[in-house]
Amino acid sequence: MAKRLLQGNEAVLLGAVKAGATYFAGYPISPSSEVLMAASVYAASHPELRFLQAEDEIASANAIIGASLAGAKSFTATSGPGFSLMQEAIGYAHKLGVPTVFVDVQRVGPATGMPTMPGQGDILQTRYGSSGDYTSIVFYPSTVAECYEYTIRAFNCAEESRSPVVLLSDAFLGHLNEVVDLDAIRVPVVERTLEPLASGHTRLFSGVATYPDGEPATADADEFIRQYEEAKARRLEVSERYAFHEYGWNKDADTLVIAFGITRRIAQPLAPHFALFRPIRIWPVLQDELREIAPRYRRIVVIEGSDGQYASVVERVLYRDVYRVPLLGGRMSLEAVREGLDRIGLLPAELAEAAV
Amino acid sequence: MTEHAIVIDGVGGQGVRVIGNTMATLLGAMGYEVTLLYDYDSSVRGGMSEAFLKYADEPISNPVVEHANVTLRLADRGPNHLDSDYVVCDIGLVKPGERAEEIPFLELGVKHFGRDLFGNMIALGRLLRLSDVKFDQAALEAALPAKYREENIGAVRYGYDLDDTQIHQIVPEEAAGRFAGRYAEAVLSGVAMRDAIELAGQHPVA
Lengths: 356, 206
Description:
In chain A, 39% of the residues lie in helices and 21% in strands. By secondary structure, chain A is an alpha/beta fold.
């Protein structure tokens, strides 16, 4: 296939197909709706992909869990408010160990917020949105080509970790068209090994704490902890093989910029003046990498489309304060980055002059 | 070549996406690296609709345009901080101090191709000329939808071939003012935007 102009949301669908997805369920919501639309169009001519537009996001989330248990690689796509509605089902999928993929194309929230404007305010929701303790694995690409690549990797990681995996995007990345050559992106596909339903023996899929034979274990702390630690260890071990990140720009600078998703793209003109750390695997947080790189820099600035969600994570991991440049209200622009850096006294003179 | 940045500024329903998609597809087919980003309000019609288009020989990092080489302004809804070396716009949309030209695209679409929607393709042609994009017929054909392909090609060519003398003949200042006046009068009396353009264009400007 030659190079072609492709939208980020469409690249997610093509990545899912490449990864072997055979089931999509979703409910339209800006700015993720093109994933649903593309899935619908694709399914019309490719019956191997089953498509369901469900009555809401709750049904969509539970449908992809059921489809996965039945043997299908499955996924859904939504945005912040829909992702909130899916949290109960996400917790259920973590409890059962269901491999499936949730795509969250972020917009400005909370609530309905600004439906078509880009935000990055779901960073913590992807980690702590459901109740109880669980180990989230979350990826956040920055280009249309990466939307394709990391959708495949998200499916692979879900199979290996036996857990729901989240692919983050945002309104700008989802609606961005770029010239891409998908054939040049070669990611081996991890095949499904879990036994599907109707395999000949009885199994119980319960959100309740149970013993392996299905009997309730609702008052057995030892059994709960055993199962929890086993799932956590598997997910952490698998996620170590997916520790994707970018470290570059001017590594000799005295300030490290941390940016991800579309924010990293917008901040590119800062390259001569700052070092860059871009986490692609957002969760589990890349603490080994951060702890190795951060001591080389006097200052750390986190530029993100939220009021310091990832910055607070970095501070916790590094035990030091970081500067914050929040890009709020959908103002994802170099001008907003410049204003933010100027406010904290870190705007390089050359960039200040360029803005005049 | 260095990055070339274009902004198409309009409102929902005006054809910002048609122009943006066609130009980006054409440039991609010509071998350029292209980014095309839509920034729009959630109102389906009447809300802000922007297309940020960049192309270059090398991959493009920041797809958001804050300084455009050329802006095509079909309505004035763009971000306040956006500036542009040159603006081509429909009648009555030039701002003080801008290097700009006015062309009644929709009216020309009606006059030369029978429908206002071909005005978008005339605007695309002018945008390609101002951006010095030397396209070939095959690449343009491939970038256009099959429906009305011949008319669309004709309209793009018409816009591309316009020269400054012709533009001044089409839009003498006084006539442009008359068109803008009729258009404003129609909109204020409750006529829909598209119908107002047609009404204003029923009295050819030159």
